[in-house]
Amino acid sequence: MLITHEHQELYRNVKKFVQDELNPHIPQWEKDGIWPAREVLGKMGKLGYLGINKPESVGGLGLDYSYEVMFAQAIGNCICGSLPMAIGVITDMATPALARFGSKALQQEFLAPVVAGEMVCSIAVSEAGAGSDVAGVKTTAVKDGDDYVINGSKMWITNGTQADWACVLANTSEGKVHQNKSLIVVPLDAKGVDRKTKLDKLGMRSSDTAMIFFDNVRVPRRNLIGVEGMGFMYQMMQFQEERLYGAASSIDGLTNIINETIDYTRQRQAFGGSILDNQYVHFRLAELKTEVEALRALIYDTTERYIGGKEKMEDLAMLASMCKLKVGRLGREVTDSCLQFWGGQGFMWDNNVARAYRDTRLVSIGGGADEIMLGIIAKCMGILPSKKAHEAKKAAQAA
């Protein structure tokens, strides 16, 4: 990926915003268990950060996705994982399908205010019984005149207690599971919506996460994104940008954890020398830094192929899944290794390394678990077990 002066300026300005406007408040937001989304997004909207690759018709900058990757990388300088994730929901998870397939009227009503920082949004796909198994969602949207009537529930919804609307995946017919789903914009102040249940999480503490219940919620059918029955396909496309964003937003965070560990182990004395003087320690840190740079190269290469538009969607899905798989596993490896080198100080709750250790654990779960990424990669490689072998395995397990 070619990094231009414009990319560098965007990166520099966003990083400064993180350092000046976000990081000083992170400790308090972590304690509160919520971030002031409207306040933060209002500032970001005025700076043009929420619509970098969105159409100019809705107030976006209309730039290609390489600029969004630079934005994500800069946002990763937050001293927590919560804010990059919560902001990424706004820019790269709840809005890509609306920007790509939504009607002009729907975009003006719901996307333009998000780009301006005047609305908060969420992506509502996962359910208690359907996380990585997107085809298994049970929420229904039944046509009734000019409305959809929505019933069901959604789980682990980031920004869920503050969002003005959610991009909801629901079953709009009883057909095949990959062809009966649609994406619908659902205002969360509608009658029958209950999102009072705020979830208590291991990490990502400063982003609010909710359960959302829909009890005969009426939504105009004009709130349908694109074509009815195409929701599963649209969501699979949204996942590619979500996974690229998530990987890119981790690069600087992991690099910063390594650098903080270098500084700490250089100062920390034991047995007549610094901890960093131990060959195992500085070799391990060198190895981790190499892995992060390899991840960066994979992300940049995937981005270049994505914006080039010459790759098959299947190939892009494989590369984006590789990015997601690698960042989840590397995040755990980096934070676990670095925390060990901090000794007892690394076990303190407010330590940046300890916070990263908690936050990065989600990366291998949310947005498609590691096992799902491996399945996608294997499928794209053409090495999934044959149907016959699969049936034989099931028969053996039953016996």
TrEMBL record:
Its cofactor is FAD. GO terms for biological process: fatty acid beta-oxidation using acyl-CoA dehydrogenase. It holds the Pfam family Acyl-CoA_dh_1. InterPro entries: Acyl-CoA_dehydrogenase (IPR050741), Acyl-CoA_DH_CS (IPR006089), Acyl-CoA_Oxase/DH_mid-dom (IPR006091), Acyl-CoA_Oxase/DH_mid-dom_sf (IPR046373), AcylCo_DH-like_C (IPR036250), AcylCo_DH/oxidase_C (IPR009075), AcylCoA_DH/ox_N (IPR013786), AcylCoA_DH/ox_N_sf (IPR037069). GO terms for cellular component: cytoplasm. The keyword Transcription does not apply. Keywords: FAD, Flavoprotein, Oxidoreductase. Residues 123-217 form the Acyl-CoA oxidase/dehydrogenase middle domain. This is Acyl-CoA dehydrogenase. The lineage of its organism: Bacteria, Pseudomonadati, Pseudomonadota, Gammaproteobacteria, Nevskiales.
